[in-house]
Amino acid sequence: MTTATRKYTIDDILAKLRGVKKSGSGWMAFCPAHDDGYSHGYKEGQSLSVSEKDGKVLLKCFAGCAYEQIVAALDMPPDEQHHEVKAPSKQSKKNSPLGKIVIAYPYEKKDGSLCYEHVRYQPKTFRFRHPDGKGGYINNMDGIDHILYRLPNLVRGIAEGKSVYIAEGERDVDNIRGLNLVATCNDCGAGKWEDRYSDELKGAPQVIIISDKDEPGRKHASEVALSVHNRGVPVKIIEMPGEFQKTEDGYTGVKDFTDWLNAGGTAPQLEKLVAEAPVYVPPLIQDSLREISGERYCVENGRVCQIKGGRDGSLTLPLCNFTARVTEEITRDNGVEVSKFFRILGHDYAGNNLPAIEVSASSFPGLNWVVSEWGMRAIIGAGQSVKDCLREAMQLLSQNAQARHIYTHTGWRHINGQDIFLSQGGAIGCDGVDVDLEPQLQRYFLGTPDPEKLKESVRASLNFLYIADLSVTLPLWTTMYLSPLAEALEPAFTLWLVAVSGSYKSTLSALALCHFGDFDNNHLPASWRDTGNQLEKLLFTAKDLPLVIDDWAPGQDNNKKRELEAKAEHIIRAQGNHQGRGRMRSDTTSRLSYYPRGMLVTSGEHTPSGHSHTARIISVRLEKEMVDLGLMTEAQTKDRHLYRQAMANYIAWLQPNWLERKCELRQQFTQLRAEITNELSDCKIHSRLPDVVAILLIALTTALEFAKSTGELKADEYDLFMNEGRRYFLDMAKEQGEMVEEQRPGQRAIEAIQASLRIGTAVLRNKNDAALTDLPSGKTAIGWRDYMNGHTLLDPAATYQVIVQHCAKSNNPYTINELETWRDLNRMGFTEASNDGRPTVMARVTAIPKSFRVVKVKNEAIGLAETTSLPLDGMENV
């Protein structure tokens, strides 16, 4: 005899077993660890004994199966206690004023935690109770939403592609689950199904409703079927076979699933019953369409027909071989524009479901979507007016279509006079908001702020800062808490994590992103392999959130490298300017331009080249040795699921008076930017970088103030993070400023000229040479040295060609045009400009009789020493 420590209730275990029957003080069931006849349809031969003693569940297989084999077959691992509902405390078994508790049916949330219980008492009556957080119960449902029974099992089953059974009560559900099937029900039985429950069934391949054999049961089954059918899920309704008779004391025979099972029903019989049941068709009877249409249309034999020949309807002409109606008028709202779609459900003439589809409102009238969406099964009759008549009939059938407003973006939104924050599936600050993001962004799920998890989640989030050096984690962590402030501060930069392969840059990025959902280094929302248009749209949709684009790696192929460089330049510039590319419709009207509305975070072994977008990047340097592997592993296994709860509570903290808070943040930015600009005035940095430092400091201060308000952040820790944050952010700006200078067109041109002269691919002639001598192969004359005046006269065209060729050979293409190159050299003080402001001047050399335009550059700018001596051969390369 093997004893299982009480982690599951005995009801949990019995619900997973098959062929359960009462035996003495316990039960007998078919053993899941070996085949003792159940798979062959046997009703007898159970070999597993199940009983309960002293708060423990006792399992014994008389065929000799070990305990570990049994629980493994039940998919109830003993080391995952937190996934199961614990047994009710002994106090819950005591008599209460309502009588003795017979059984408490646990209604669990999706994460497996107990939401409430539906309790049956003796004498028979039912009541609700929910945990009070102290080990006891509160005997009401105040503030608690009703949910479906066995919800975690339902969610797993649908994800695994299993059919779902719906019964009328918990006992039936548990007996269905005993056959290793997925089942659920609503609480309180017939007539209590809420339409929102059907949303949990989306994606199920099939739903089978088992109706009780009385009028309330059949009405309940029909109501549930219509609700589920309207979600585009195939539905069947069945009743269990067997005689049923009402009596004065109740009934005799088979009324529900449990009666049928107790009468000897088996899994193969159930499977056959389901297979033979017809697909549910909603009651679109011809009389309803006749009445609505004024005797012009009807539904007959599963077809939409036109009535001709008088009001008696003696002649009906089929318009098609199917029925179809709009069940939902969907408005999709991305925060800038709205689009309308119709969700259409249809059935062929035999009653089989056609795929549920969405059709844009603009394409609906033409009915061309019928063939493109439903293929050859759906046929529209011939004739000039047939489509118009069918369209009219479908609209008449769709008068009860539900209006549905779906938000397709994240972040702040002002709705009905209040500011709410959208993420996949809902909103913080308002119930009943429908948010549906595209697949790449559906992991951005914040959920509802839980005050009971506030301190624990905030401490977990703060612990992220210790996973690696603060020079790495502070910018990453601050960027997460900056993202919800993006609407106020409009951050115009990209955070770039720079590290060699194997330094955990993707792992750290994914961990940080867990503040907004469920991510890991294999499941990040975007990749540089995505098209530029797709990345633009994701940055637009992920409003007030950080979008992580995984690992920028150009590789060795020059063509692919140039393509990726161009994509990175476009995306980084869009993020830096908050602008998208203009688009035009075929009728020449403007289309929506997708512009970034949140934060951009990415990583790579190095950053892209280029002056303008280097000024729009802030780099974070990471070395493998900076990471504490122990703390990172602990964060991955323990803390990361708490991060989003910390962020949800942070957003709820920001929410009151969000409009006024935005104004305050902007004022803080203006003041702090001036302070940072003054502090960095002695450094050669781009004018954008003080903005970056100011925004990061405001975000860090806001996040730490929130953490401090929870009591989890102490004064010394607050001072540490603030002081180190300011130091690191300023250092990052200085380092980025140096990188920006290195990428200036003038600086790159000077370096290319110097290198070409040094290696001999470029040479300088003497200004006073009488003739232009021929040059050896592989050498290009780029100008003339003026030994008397300390300048070099560069031939603009030849010099520019040498610059471009040298950069191309260095795998760092030079894409700045010639005129802008000379202008930047002049701005840097390396060249002289003409009186009219042009960056070139007129000059003459002895070998050319006419004057012409040259770039007059200082010798020291291109690395030439001051000298008045002439080279012996009339040429010089340094």
Features:
878 residues; alpha/beta; six-stranded mixed sheet; five-stranded antiparallel sheet; 24 helices; elongated
Describe the structure.
This protein is α/β, with parallel strands linked by helices and 878 residues long. The chain has a six-stranded mixed beta sheet with strand order 37-38-36-35-34-39. A five-stranded antiparallel beta sheet has the order 1-5-4-3-2, with helices on one face. A hairpin with a 5-residue loop joins β6 and β7 (114-122). α1 crosses α4 (170-177), α12 runs parallel beside α14 and α15 (532-541) runs parallel beside α16 (558-577). The longest helix has 28 residues, at 715-742.
Radius of gyration: 37 Å
Given the structure, what is the number of helices?
Answer: 24
Proportion of helical residues: 25-40%
Morphology call:
elongated
Number of strands: 39
* Fraction in beta strands: 15-25%
Separation, N- and C-terminal Cα atoms: 92 Å
Topology:
Blueprint lengths: L1 E3 L5 H7 L1 E6 L2 E5 L17 E6 L2 E6 L5 H7 L26 E9 L5 E9 L2 E7 L5 E2 L12 H9 L4 E3 L3 H8 L4 E3 L22 E4 L4 H15 L5 E4 L5 E4 L2 E4 L3 H6 L4 H10 L9 H8 L3 E4 L2 E6 L6 E4 L3 E12 L4 E11 L4 E8 L8 H6 L11 H12 L4 E6 L3 E5 L2 E6 L2 E3 L5 E2 L18 H10 L6 H13 L3 H4 L4 E5 L6 H9 L12 E2 L4 H10 L4 E7 L5 H20 L5 E2 L5 E2 L7 E6 L6 H4 L2 E5 L7 H26 L3 H22 L9 H21 L5 H28 L2 H15 L2 E5 L13 E7 L4 E4 L1 H14 L8 H10 L13 E5 L2 E11 L16 E2 L2
Helix pairs in contact: 1-4, 11-18, 12-14, 12-20, 12-21, 15-16, 19-20, 20-21, 22-23, 22-24
